[in-house]
Every structure is written in C-alpha cells, then in structure tokens.
Amino acid sequence: MRRGSRLSWTWSTTTAEGDEWGPTLSFRGLDNASYYRLAEGGRRYANDTGTGNTLNLTHPMVLRMVMDSLRYWVEFAHVDGFRFDLATVLGREAAGFDPQGGFFDAIRQDPTLSRVKLIAEPWDIGPGGYQLGAYPHPFLEWNDRFRDGVRRYWKGDAGMTRDLAARVLGSAEKFDHSGRAATSSVNYLTSHDGFTLEDLVSYTVKRNWLNGEDNRDGHSENHSDNLGVEGPTDDAAVLASRGLRKRNLLATLMLAQGVPMLLAGDEMGQSQGGNNNAYAQDNETAWLDWHGADAGLTAFVARLTALRRDLKVLRQRRFLHARPRPSDGLRDVIWRLPDGREPGSHDWHDPAFRCLCVEMRMAAEGNDPSPEAVLLVFNTGSALPLTLPDTAPGWELLLDTTRPELTSGAPPAIAPDQSVLLMRATTTRTKGETP
C-alpha cells in the first residue's frame, strides 16, 4: 500500500486460531486465558462471533494490543477508517453489551483513532447481540432496518410506507439520541453478504448449491422479487421492470438522510447467479464482470451521486424534526400526500398508502439560512395526480426514475406508477410571505 493512500479496513474481533480444535499459532500459546473469552470453566471458547473464538477486550493487555494494531494501520498504512465486523463483541463487558465499555472509551479518547471513520456492524450471534442504534458517537452503524424496509416497500408489501418515512429521515427512532449525528445510519440495499442488487430483482429464492452445503447456508428471508421470471431472461417487459426496480431502490438509497453504502458491482448490474453467500466462490460467480457492465445503470448511479453531492439538503448532519426554520418560518420537513395534503394518523396506518411525498429543507436546529428545498416522491402504487406544494413559487424536476435519461424539466402533473421523483424549489418564500 503506497504511502498517503486513503483506504478503509475491515477489522475482525477473532483470530486465525479458531476454536478449541484449531491450531496454536500465537495468542493461545502466549496466554490463552487472557487473550480469549472462555466458557465452560475454560474448556471451550465463547463463540459470539460464529467463527469459534472471541478476543477478550476486557483484559487490559488485550485492549492495548488491539489499540496498538489499529493505530499502526492508521499511522503507517494510512487507512482512513475501520469497519468492525460483528461489533457487539467489542462492547461485551461482564454484564453484557455496554456502549460505555472499555474499548469504546479507549477509542474515543485516542487522539488518532477518534478522528478516523469508525463503522460498526451492530450485531453478533451472542445473547443480546442485536444492538442497532446503541453505539456511542463517533461510531456509524450498518442499518439493516433500511435494507429490509426499503426492499419490502419496493417489493410492494402492504403497510410499509410509514417505515419508509423513517428510513428516508435517517432512522431517527434508532439514532437520534446522545448527540449522535444524522449520518450515524449507514444505509444500504446490499452488502457482501446476501444477494447483489441484480439478483435481488431476479430471484425469489437463494441458489447456493455450488457452496457444497445443500443450499442450507445464506439468509433465506431476502425480500426479493424476480419480477415475473426466475433468473436470467430475454423477456423485454421483465427486463424493463427489473431496470426500473433497480433505479427506484438506488434512488431511495441516495436520496435518504444518512450515509449511503453501495456494494461494488451493483452500479453495473453484477449477478452472482442467485448465490447469496458466495464467500466460497473464488471464480466467475463472485468476480466483477467489467466487460458485461450495464453502462446505462452506471450512468444513472453517477447521476444520483452527483445530485447528492450538489444538494446539501440531502446529506445533513442534523436530524429533521418538522420544526419552523428561523430564516423563513417553514418547517424543515413536511410529509405530503400526492394531492398536497399532509397525511393524518389514518393515512399512516392505511395499508393502501403507497405514494409518499416529502418536502425537505435544512434543519431548523442548525439555523442554516440556505433557501434550498427539495420535494421527493416515492410511489410504489399506481399513477396518481400530483399537486405540488405552494411553499415555493416553482419546482424543477431533477430526477424521474421512469425516464433515467432526463436531467431537468418541468414538474409533472402525474406521479408515475413505480417511480421516484426529485424536484428542487426554484425559489423559496421569505418569512411571512403569503402564497
């Protein structure tokens, strides 16, 4: 790795020595009882990770070794952050997971490590292992609620619109506490575990037969949909539906508050043939096929990232609480129905509520006077007439997933079925000005 490179690094809380049947390579031979968490009177290893052993971070010398290791990667290898696999084990103290545990305190006080990117996979397989939202600042967390909720919304599952609203605002019900930023949620649709985006819209069931485990491995509840044909097809209608579904999923990812994470290959339509646990496939199944890349999809992803970069309102550090902004008196977030009205309690609980509109501005609490405002429309139902808010004199259409080549245009009178729209206010009203 060349000096000055800026790369992130996945850090594991286990070692190559494995469980009690594994070889003695290093720490086991030095001080087994100190370096590892043991069970059954020391006869076996605690297996909260599923890989056989777990480092004992409550021991001061083990914690020191881990901190020295992390600092080495930052100071000498120049990585700019870490993603901690099965990170709940990092905070396991005598009484269970503790967000104020020794490892977290050590990281937060360290002048080097406290300034790099810190991302937790907030679960392990031990008791009380699921800890989404429980990590201290400055940790970010992989958000599987976003993954599953957004997949189910676009799959057409009933009653998912209220959940989508929470995901679009950075899953505040999980992360808006203890001074944490709205960037605490790492939003993702797919990761190295599970289906690729292409397979998410091409298969209803996993196909892991080549892994040699009789298709028992890998997650079975994928919330996937083949859009009419299982696997590859030449059917133009099915391919068009799959293309639109991918664009809707990607647009939802890139327009939501939080930090978007994109699986390598999803931007070009990479398939693993329905294998959702391809760790054992060092072959064409898991290799990126650069020659078979979908240039249209890649261009669409590039457009999404450009929009997110250019529109500050899409990437805020403060949560939105629907409070009036001091600069113009307008609320920083306003939920809307397609007809322009604000939804009531009965709407939020209506299983047929399938078209969600949201008007967003810079957070009131930040006192940012920027007049920037956007209107997002997420429609997983049929086409509906669209009434634009009168909180701005005009709106410009910047994105329509049913027309991926469009870069700007007049606002539509109809929200197309199965679509995401992004509009920007051309100007905004000053405080006290009436429509």
Task: Write up what this structure looks like.
- The protein is α/β, with parallel strands linked by helices and 435 residues long.
- The chain folds into two domains: 7-307, TIM Barrel; 323-427, Immunoglobulin-like (Sandwich).
- The chain has helices at residues 27-35, 60-75, 102-109, 144-155, 161-168, 172-175, 197-200, 236-255, 295-310, 345-348; strands spanning 7-11, 38-39, 44-45, 79-84, 92-93, 96-97, 117-120, 140-143, 185-188, 259-261, 333-336, 355-361, 373-379, 384-385, 394-400, 414-415, 419-427.
- A six-stranded parallel β-sheet has the order 1-4-7-8-9-10. It has a five-stranded antiparallel β-sheet with strand order 11-12-13-17-15, with helices on one face.
- Strand 5 and strand 6 (96-97) form a beta hairpin.
Supply the helix-strand structural class. alpha/beta
Query: Helical region count?
Result: 10
Low-confidence stretches: 1-5
Provide the domain count. 2
Mean pLDDT: 93
Number of strands: 17
Rounded to an integer in angstroms, the radius of gyration calculated over CA atoms is: 24 Å
* CATH homologous superfamily placement of the largest domain: Glycosidases
**Which percent range fits the helix content?**
10-25%
Gross morphology is: globular
In terms of DSSP E residues, the strand content is 15-25%
C-alpha end-to-end distance: 58 Å
The CATH class of the largest domain turns out to be Alpha Beta
Strand order of the largest sheet: 1-4-7-8-9-10
Q: What is the annotated CATH architecture of the largest domain?
A: Alpha-Beta Barrel
**What name does the CATH topology of the largest domain carry?**
TIM Barrel
Largest sheet: 6 strands, parallel
Q: What string, H for helix and E for strand, traces the elements in order?
A: EHEEHEEEHEEHHHEHHEHEHEEEEEE
